[in-house]
Amino acid sequence: MLKTLVSHKKIFKNRFLNFLGLQVYRILGAQLIHSIKLKKNQNNLQKNGFDIYENFLSKDKFASITKEFNKAYKEFSPIQDNDLAYGTKIESVPIEYLKEKKKKFPNLLKFLESKEIFDLVSDHELISKDRLSKRGTFKVRLEKTFQGKNIKNNKYRSNSDPHKDTYHKVTKIIYYITDVNQDSAPFTFFNQTNRLNFKILLKEWIKSFTEPNGAPRFSEKFLKNVSSKKTTLTCKKNTLIIADTGYGIHNRGLIKKNNIRKTIWIEYRNSLPLIP
Length: 276
Ligand SMILES: [Fe+2]
What we know:
The protein is α+β, with helices and mostly antiparallel strands. It has a single domain, classed as q2cbj1_9rhob like domain (Jelly Rolls, Sandwich). It is 35% helix and 22% strand.
């Protein structure tokens, strides 16, 4: 029981314990540990919940990574995923595939395991670089997003609806291989929702015993009351976005016909988020 309590399991299915505040204690516990470790001089990511780095790599490095990205889709049959509610189709190539034929993808693998990426994650998680792999898990994949079939399913929990990934801090990096505009599923973040907010907490408490089926979803109407602004990250290729998608409310925008979004997706989760 105690192990599950401090684990990265999004939510307990036990409505009664959640009514008594179990999920709220977990959220508060994670926030408390995070704020103890936080330094006085906070960077943009810690303050606002996200940050953007344009022209992240040199032109040459970006070109070689793009080349290998496209090569990966010719080399492997990607994993297919459909967002049933909005007809978004995602084809992904996990890093494990690239590692199988590592000689063919030297630049991509170098980038994914680079000091720059580890520094960004380490700064946000407040865990030293050499302890990151011990304390948590990286998930990495290449993603191609485009419009697929729209299958109506109201029960489906879409990532295009504003949500939190879980109850604790999560570091998400999205690196844009193509330009991403309004019509090509831009990442959207509700500013400063990464900070402790009573209205959000109350909503999460109610959802924890009324619909304990995973990470909570929030309506735009509710969000107008809790976040002064939402930022849609329409950016040029070679832009890196980093965001806290555990505390912060965010969503993936919709993709329109004849658009394609190519991105590299990196996520880090601490496996024991309630242990400092
Ligand atoms: Fe998410």
